[in-house]
Amino acid sequence: MKIQIKTQKQLLIIVPLVIAWCFDLLFWKKMWGVSFPILTVLTLAGGLGLAAMQGIRPHWRSLLLVIPALFFSVMTVFRAEPFTSFINVVFTILSITILAVSFTGGRWWLYSFTDYVEKGFHFSLALITKPFSLFTRAPQAEGTPPAVEKAGTGKAILRGILFSLPILLVLSALLASADLIFESNLHGFLSMFRVENLGETAFRLFYILVLAFFLAGAYLYAYQDSGDTALRGLEKPGMPRVLGTVESAVVLISINLLFIVFVAIQFRYLFGGQANIHLDGYTYAEYARKGFGELTAVAVLSLLILQSIHSLVKQKEGSRNGWLTSLSALVVAQVLVILASAYMRLALYENAYGFTRVRTYTHIFLFWIAILLLVTTGLEIARRTRLFPLAVLLAGVGFSVTLNAFSVDANIVRLNIAHATAGNTDLDAGYLVSLSEDAVPALAQRYLYGDLPAAQKDLVAAALACKIYELPTEEDTNLLPWTSYSFIRAYASGFLVKLTPQLEPYTVQIDEYGAAYAPVGPEKVYCFSQLID
After folding, report:
1. What residues make up the domain containing 485?
2. Inter-residue contact 533 to 83 (CB < 8 Å)
């Protein structure tokens, strides 16, 4: 049973305001922690709850998007590495946005890129325009006095607030005198209303209202407009197909000829061994150190070119389309060889210089772009190219899940220490210091149980000493609100506190320039480092 229009409007104003206010309470001048998954749950619960109260049923396929939204939001508590955290936030927001856009229609899995652009534009417009409908007078049912009831309700609420204020003041004073923590929190709340905090309070009130306004627009779009299931290229005209099959074949043949030459060189040199490289005056490391980024870009660009051709080519039956499919498959096969070349170059570079974040991201990305290329070929053969955007979305989710499961910083620690132990590279303790809390458990485990050579154990100990130096004091920790709790920060801090007595010889000192360092014999490991690629 649907609720009355007046109540519906009231709730569509109140619920976004409450969620926006919670955003302020969770994030204003606070470290991120469980606050982000809490906000995600509040946003989803508010939207689904309002829909249920209005008798609006979301499509089951759209509800599937709740799963990645919750997963990626929760992973922000378990991962501190910056890029992984960024990806988690992005995919949380993306999942919620697609849920809103397809709330009642449920056909998001069939969206083309044109559909995403079109619906994204309409959704963005709705965030700005739709909330205004909440402040216009709705048609009244017969026999209902239109303005009197609203005015009476508003006055009653105002009178209730006025009656409550003196009661709350008396009770708050008594409770503050009974509990010091409550008194401190009450003073913190009341300090917002001092004259010197007036600008800050006004700014916070402003962005709360703006967030609530946009959130109301998102809910309204989900309830009113997400049932439009007509898709470009199916029920609505798609992009005009302007390429002929001959022109498309010429483009694909040209790309294939270029790739054939490049792949032949790769088989002769990179896949042929180090001796061939020396013949042309290059060392193996010099040949491999440059190019894996460019080759990855070639793979992505080739994928986009193939999809553009198949989206723009005129539809014809017969052998010509078969030729295009064959030529596309040949391009994909050669791109896979190029990806293998990029992977080998990256591996050689890492053997010489060690692992970094960017190199680790590239490793994982190469794997998922290869899968996407194979899936794209299968879709082309099966004549299901419309599912390519879905394949891209799933590959993106797979890449993000892998980053979370892999724990980038922790694996950099393990791999760099293993390479250094094997004599392949020198251990860069400064780089280990620059990594996030994700790296601390791996550093601690290698220090305690790694059976490392003395020199490397000293460097690991110095890195851990720098991490101990960066720990917040007990007083700072006590001041952190519970919303800033992060599992990985707490887990890392537990390791560091336990290791503090053992790492006393490496206690951080300050040099004559004010820089912090951990002593390793006559050497110094400084507690800061600029991240490298």
Report:
1. 428-526
2. no
